Amino acid sequence: MDIGLGGPMGILAIFKKEMRVYFASPIAYAVFTIFLVISGFFFYTLLTYFSLISAQASMNPGLATGLNVTDGIVRPLFGNMSVILLFVMPLITMRLFAEERKQGTLELLLTYPVRDAEVLLGKFLAATAFSGLLLLTTALYPLLLALWSEPELYPILTGYLGLLLLAMAFISLGLLCSSLTENQIVAATLAFGALLLFWIIGWAAMLAEGDWALLFRYLSIVDHLASFTQGVIETKDLVYYLGVTSFFLFATLKSMEIRRWKG
Amino acid sequence: MIEVQGLTKVYGNKTAIDNLTFTVEQGEVVGFLGPNGAGKTTTMRVLSCFMPPSSGTAKVNGYDIHTQALEVRRRIGYLPEHNPLYTDFTVTQYLNFVGEAKGLSRLSRRQKVGEVIERCLLHDTREWIIGRLSKGYRQRVGLAQALLGDPPILILDEPTIGLDPKQIIEIRSLIQDMQGERTVILSTHILPEVSMVCQRVIIINGGRIVAVDTPESLTHRLQRSTQVRLHIEGPPDQITDRLREMAGVLRVETTDGAGALHRYLVETEKERDLRQELARVVCGSGWGLLELRPVDMSLEEVFIHLVTEEPDSVTVDR
Ligand SMILES: Nc1ncnc2c1ncn2[C@@H]1O[C@H](COP(=O)(O)OP(=O)(O)O)[C@@H](O)[C@H]1O
Ligand SMILES: [Mg+2]
Fold first, then answer.
1. Residue in B with minimal Cα distance to A107
2. Whose CA is nearest to atom 1 of ligand 1?
3. Using a 6 Å cutoff on CB, does residue B35 contact ligand 1?
4. Using an 8 Å Cβ cutoff, are B290 and B263 in contact?
5. What pLDDT, on a 0 to 100 scale, did the predictor assign at position A204?
6. What pLDDT digit, counting tens, does each position of B230-264 carry?
7. Which chain A positions have a beta carbon within 8 Å of B48's beta carbon?
8. What is the ipTM of this complex?
9. Closest Cα of chain B to A115: distance in Å?
10. What is the tens place of the pLDDT at every residue in B167-199?
11. Between A37 and B296, whose confidence is greater?
């Protein structure tokens, strides 16, 4: 059957459809709420802790060196948000193939004159846009910070870029998991397990030696976020996220093809 | 229009359809009749390019399902068996999406969506959420999405399954309206349905084609009578007369033979299996019974598993 890259019309049609389904479902609103509330909680905690340290620092000038809101609040906040993403991204991607397969709508969708790649990209872009919106709502916290202090703008922007790239890698893996089953919960569980593995693979780096340590370190999905939150866009990190994303998207395309055979 | 050549689909080690070959002419409404598990859905999924066959080919309007799947899909409107729909959408939103996916431009989309809404009598429910619609209305939406974009070929998998009699009549009349204008393949396990809407029937069982016929002669073969072939040694006139006297026998005919040895074709009433009695009568009269065999047993077997009667409310002509 035809695969290969699709045209923009088909992608747009699927994209719009998925966005509509997102905002028609209670899961989307639950995810938004959870994400805002938990990141808000982290923000509040970081802020309180930072004020405490600053208050002490004002009495003891020795402590004050290197103390700023970017390092003290913004960066840890991004780190925490990446952890929340680990939990919520599987919820965003779980239904994309599994539920359509279960409801039988995928059968119809795949008989329209759209290529598999167009269906996949439409879904991927919709999940990416949804995650983008999700991240955007948390811009509230840096804005609040700007009322009261002067955080550096650039690390905030690159930090968000890094989080979005991280989300894209999560989405592509989640799509693969969703394409493997008819059950959303199974899809979410698989995705969560796989993401967690990608996350903790960095820990293996501490035990391994030499080239292995380097490899594990490189594979670890969250280590690549660090430079972004420092306001640096490094090619190796960019390549990593885009590479992981393309790899899993490609695997999903193959999985769709195999599923066609099985019916 | 549709040429199917040696189509086979194997799931794991289960052969769902086995070497199917048939053609459907332009403008024909063809019924795909068979009991559950016969392979109807599998055939339709292959023809609609949802899944590739294990072997064999099919051409739709001259386009090959293997190498020109997108071209095939552009020409087919498909209604899957359980009529899957996005239940969160309104009818109009859904049909708009289908129009986009089928590649209609914004301008023609507006017009074509309006047309199918009219045609499938969805006007009053166009802003309804699909999840709130009755089954009959959902089926109309399913039919509307298949019709959208004016595909020359429609593939409808059990379009009346699960509907109540009134809804069945509506859907059938919508399908009947398309006669001549589009090529339609519809599957069903209800015998009267094919007589009502189809010009030709392909009977499939166990993944194989059992018979291809017009609904009239098929109904005749299946519904009114069962035929038994006999090969008897004895006086032909006496034998014919004696057999005709038996209760349940409709017709007796000598097919060929010479001297005292003749073959007979006995048509009996549908519900009665007269084979034992026929044997008893022949032997009791002192004639020699050389052979006794029911005709078309394979068709009979199919028939047993089909739904052959419907409540009057459905079968009454509109
Ligand atoms: N996806 C599948 N995987 C394995 N077996 C299947 C699958 N789909 C159908 N079958 C089997 O293939 C046979 C034909 O099924 P199907 O085409 O659905 O028949 P029908 O539509 O006539 O009821 C059945 O025995 C069914 O169990
Ligand atoms: Mg079926």
1. B50
2. A263
3. no
4. no
5. 77
6. 999 989 888 999 988 888 888 888 877 788 888 89
7. 111
8. 0.88
9. 8
10. 898 889 888 888 888 999 999 988 788 888 898
11. A37
**Ion ligand 2 neighbours, Cβ < 5 Å:** B 40-41, 81
pLDDT at residue B254 in the model: 85
HEC-encoded secondary structure of A105-140: HHHHHCCCCCCHHHHHHHHHHHHHHHHHHHHHHCCH
Give me the residues of A, 4-23, that contact B with CB < 8 A.
9-10, 12-14, 16-17, 20-21
Residue of A nearest to B42 (CA): A263
pLDDT given for residue B219 in this prediction: 66
Question: In the predicted model, is pLDDT for residue B298 greater than 90?
Answer: no
At residue B140 the predicted structure's pLDDT band, cuts being 50, 70 and 90, is very high
Give the pLDDT of residue A75.
87
Distance B254 CA to ligand 2 centre (A): 42
Which residue's alpha carbon is at the smallest distance from atom 17 of ligand 1? B39
Substitution target in B83, B86, B143, B148 with the highest count of A β-carbons within 10 Å is B86
Query: What separation in Å is there between the alpha carbon of B100 and the centre of ligand 1?
Result: 31
Rounded to 5°, angle at Cα A156 from A75 and A59: 50
Give A220-250 pLDDT, tens digit per residue: 887 888 888 888 888 989 999 999 999 999 9
Give me the residue spans of the domains in chain A.
7-262
For A74, the token pair is 């913004």
Neighbours of A30 (CB within 10 A): 12
Alpha helical stretches, state H, chain A: 8-24, 26-59, 69, 75-93, 95-103, 105-109, 116-137, 140-148, 153-179, 184-207, 210-219, 226-229, 235-262
Residue ranges of chain A with pLDDT lower than 50?
Answer: 1-6
Two tokens at A52?
């405490």
| CA B152 to chain CA mean position, Å | 19
Q: Say whether residue A115 is in contact with chain B using an 8 A CB cutoff.
A: yes
In the prediction, which pLDDT does B315 show?
Answer: 55
Going along chain B from its start, the domains and CATH numbers come out as 2-220 (3.40.50.300), 225-295 (3.30.70.3190)
Q: How far is the C-alpha of A118 from the C-alpha of A116, rounded, in Å?
A: 5
